[in-house]
């Protein structure tokens, strides 16, 4: 508790002996504050609400590139060139294969019995 009392004593001394700012510094601070207040109070140009979300994507230039890339992706998906595999085969496989691990189990149920 002795440390706490010493600290309180130092705080009390600091409250009593407040530093005094020079008058010219106070005038400069108040002048700067007034200039900032006037600068901030000037009304900003309001943008239409529908265009505010466009800035999140980087503006109309970036959105134009996104639209072009999307259109190219749709076109390649619909009319794929010959050297690309058909994406429909990945979605709808034509043949089914069974892989059975060799665990010395009876796999007779997989064979056709006629």
Strand proportion, as a percent range, falls in under 5%
Total number of helices: 5
Q: What's the structural domain tally? A: 1
| Mean of residue pLDDT values | 79
pLDDT < 50 runs, ≥5 residues:
none
Q: Give the class from helix and strand content and strand pairing.
A: mainly alpha
Major beta sheet summary: none
Silhouette? elongated
Describe the 3D structure:
With 114 residues, the protein is an all-alpha fold. It has one domain. The chain has five helices and no strands. The protein is elongated, with a radius of gyration of 38 Å. The model has no long low-confidence stretch (mean pLDDT 79).
Strands, helices and their partners?
Layout: H1 2-16, H2 23-41, H3 49-52, H4 59-78, H5 88-91
């Amino acid at each position: 508790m002795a440390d706490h009392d010493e600290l309180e004593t130092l705080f009390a001394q600091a409250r009593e002996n407040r530093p005094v700012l020079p008058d010219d510094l106070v005038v400069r601070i108040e002048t700067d504050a007034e200039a900032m207040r006037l600068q901030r109070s000037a009304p900003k140009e309001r943008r239409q609400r529908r265009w505010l979300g466009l800035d999140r994507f980087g503006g109309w230039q970036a959105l134009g590139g996104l639209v072009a890339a999307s259109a190219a992706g749709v076109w390649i998906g619909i009319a794929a060139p010959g050297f690309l595999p058909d994406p429909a085969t990945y979605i709808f496989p034509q043949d089914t294969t069974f892989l059975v691990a060799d665990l010395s189990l009876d796999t007779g149920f997989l064979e056709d019995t006629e």
